[in-house]
Structure to design on (644 residues):
């Protein structure tokens, strides 16, 4: 897929404050189709707020959001095409993995054989076929995270929004998660992923650095590492933050 | 070092920083105590009218005075019944109509025949017509009338036989009057418990469904699945109706259990039609309780607040819902509160069906109000729900 493709998400001067405290400074950003796009920053940088605005769960105080070139956030035609994996374990713990996946598939209008086949396919993909009949509450934390991914994938979304998918996941599974994301991306899905494990975002094709609700940088991970002449992305982030602080001091 | 002060401090800070929870914490007992005070401060009084024909009218004043001296009884006057001779059946029909309309709880009829009976040495008989569906009121009327009849007996003229000694004359004097009780609903056998039991059905169904809906939905919110439902191309109305359908099955099973207990405990027979009517009322209550539960769940910000809403919703139903204390026992200025409670309408309909033997259709105004309340809750829910979903 070409990287010179259409805009998946367009943000035009989008801002949001909570109780007078800005969570997002006016942000203008275009996220192209068909990539793994990383939203990086420490906790409280405004990543989740941005995701919620994109999904229509929160209304921005100002600015405009356009999805898939023409749709507003919350429009059913847009939400149908989005798969969301929230940060917290949002599953029905008394149901088993398969039942959870089927339930979310049904919410997106899937029925019958198509749903059945797709459920088995996504369970297989996250390597849970053998554990699919156990209630979610009895699964390990890592398995529960995999069920979350399966429920986000079941309706074949063209845009996957993953909020801290690897938080609380052990290192080997974290690596597998990134492998799955890469496969999904190769299959044509666009992925918007947030993480505060900044170093692991080298798997993204493009990232932005977000800090205190402001955009610091935007580029390919390798380009950023080279620009700041550091060893990894995390160090690049620290440098970018310092540069911004210096700029603020010089130009108050 | 003891950790006690630090744990205590943590709790205190937690409370102070959640003003809404704190407000509810203090507000709930105040509201509940006010409710208890208001609902119990007004004694339930029974309204009794006295009717007499012919010469018996001479004694109406005495009877009314005697009744007025009784506690918990107020005198009523039946303007709808003309003050002229009617044949017995017509008069009885008129009296029953007044009872049915709820204008009075009891009508004491003093027939002219009584005086003649007294003169011929018989005890004589007063007729007492009773509404009969509320055992406490029935008992109040009956005991007040019995006491007034004793007073009357001593006031009535007696014929003293020429051979009778002074002692003999006294014995005629104290001969009590017979009171023939005629019930519009129920009978002398209707127990207080028979009055109370039927309304436990709507109450339990309402209470438990409300509680369960509130907690279930709260859990949906806390664990984040609600957010996922709202992101999916699913309308809020679908979520709500899904809840209703899912809950109704269990609520019906619960209703069946409560109903089976009721039927076993009630002191009178119940027909299949009556059972069917109760099921219908129960269904309405399930839906209303469910919608209210969801509404409260939406309005609350955390589980703590959601739990505190429970007494705030349930206790007014208990005190004002025609459950233990009747609406008539409330101060007249506050009776409108009773009609705001869904339980009031369900209870009236249930008693109409079971105790008055009416068809459910005759309680249509109450059912209509229940349906209206359901629709209102649905409307509020869609407003609150949309705002909450959008506001995060």
């Amino acid at each position: 897929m070409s990287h010179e493709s259409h805009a998946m998400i367009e943000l035009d001067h989008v801002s949001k404050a909570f109780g007078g405290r800005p969570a997002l400074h006016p942000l203008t950003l275009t996220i192209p189709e068909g990539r793994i796009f990383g939203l990086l920053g420490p906790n409280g940088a405004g990543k989740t707020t941005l995701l919620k605005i994109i999904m229509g769960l929160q209304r921005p105080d100002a600015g405009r959001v356009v999805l898939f070139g023409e749709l507003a956030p919350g429009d059913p035609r847009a939400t149908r095409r989005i798969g969301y994996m929230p940060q917290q374990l949002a599953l029905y713990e008394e149901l088993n993995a398969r039942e959870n996946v089927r339930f979310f598939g049904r919410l997106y209008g899937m029925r019958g054989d198509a749903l059945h086949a797709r459920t088995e396919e996504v369970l297989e993909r996250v390597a849970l076929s053998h554990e699919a009949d156990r209630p979610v509450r009895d699964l390990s934390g890592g398995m529960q995270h995999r069920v979350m991914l399966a429920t986000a994938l079941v309706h074949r979304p063209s845009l996957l929004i993953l909020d801290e998918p690897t938080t609380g996941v052990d290192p080997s599974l974290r690596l597998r998660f990134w492998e799955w994301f890469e496969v999904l991306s190769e299959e044509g899905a666009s992925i918007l992923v947030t993480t505060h494990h900044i170093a692991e975002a080298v798997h993204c094709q493009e990232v932005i650095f977000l800090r205190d609700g402001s955009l610091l940088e935007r580029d390919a991970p390798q380009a950023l590492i080279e620009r700041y002449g550091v060893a990894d992305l995390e160090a690049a982030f620290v440098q970018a933050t310092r540069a911004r602080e210096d700029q603020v001091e010089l130009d108050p | 070092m003891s950790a006690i002060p630090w744990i205590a401090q943590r709790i205190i800070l937690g409370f102070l920083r959640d003003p809404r929870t704190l407000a509810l914490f203090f507000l709930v007992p105040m509201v509940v105590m006010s409710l208890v005070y208001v609902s119990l401060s007004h004694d339930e009084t029974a309204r009794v009218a006295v009717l007499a024909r012919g010469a018996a009218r001479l004694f109406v004043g005495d009877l009314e005075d005697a009744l007025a001296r009784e506690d918990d009884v107020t005198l009523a006057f039946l303007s709808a019944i003309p003050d002229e001779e009617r044949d017995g059946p017509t008069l009885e029909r008129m009296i029953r109509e007044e009872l049915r309309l709820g204008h009075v709880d009891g009508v004491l009829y003093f027939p002219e025949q009584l005086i003649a009976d007294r003169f011929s040495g018989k005890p004589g008989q007063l007729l007492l017509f009773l509404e009969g569906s509320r055992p406490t009121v029935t008992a109040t009327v009956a005991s007040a009338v019995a006491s007034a009849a004793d007073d009357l007996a001593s006031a009535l003229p007696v014929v003293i036989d020429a051979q009778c000694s002074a002692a003999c004359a006294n014995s005629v004097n104290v001969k009590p009057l017979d009171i023939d009780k005629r019930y519009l609903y129920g009978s002398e056998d209707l127990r207080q418990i028979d009055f109370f039991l039927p309304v436990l059905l709507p109450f339990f169904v309402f209470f438990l469904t409300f509680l369960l809906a509130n907690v279930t939905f709260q859990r949906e919110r806390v664990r984040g699945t609600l957010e996922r439902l709202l992101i999916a191309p699913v309308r809020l109305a679908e979520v709500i109706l899904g809840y209703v359908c899912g809950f109704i099955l269990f609520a019906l099973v619960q209703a069946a259990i409560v109903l089976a207990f009721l039927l076993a405990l009630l002191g009178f027979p119940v027909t299949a039609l009556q059972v069917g009517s109760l099921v219908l009322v129960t269904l309405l209550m399930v839906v209303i309780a469910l919608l209210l539960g969801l509404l409260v769940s939406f309005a609350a910000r955390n589980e703590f607040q959601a739990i505190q809403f429970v007494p705030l919703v349930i206790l007014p139903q208990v005190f004002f819902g025609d459950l233990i204390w009747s609406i008539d026992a409330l101060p007249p200025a506050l009776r409108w509160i009773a009609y705001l409670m869904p339980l009031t309408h369900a209870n009236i309909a249930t008693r109409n069906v079971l105790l008055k033997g009416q068809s459910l259709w005759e309680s249509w105004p109450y059912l209509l109000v229940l349906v209206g309340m359901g629709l209102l809750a649905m409307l509020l829910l869609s407003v609150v729900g949309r705002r909450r979903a959008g506001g995060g």
About this structure: Chain B touches chain A at residues 223-225, 227-234, 389-392 (CB under 8 Å). The CA atoms of residues 219 and 303 of chain B lie 8 Å apart. DSSP finds 16 helices and five strands in chain B. Chain B has two domains: 46-183, 192-391.
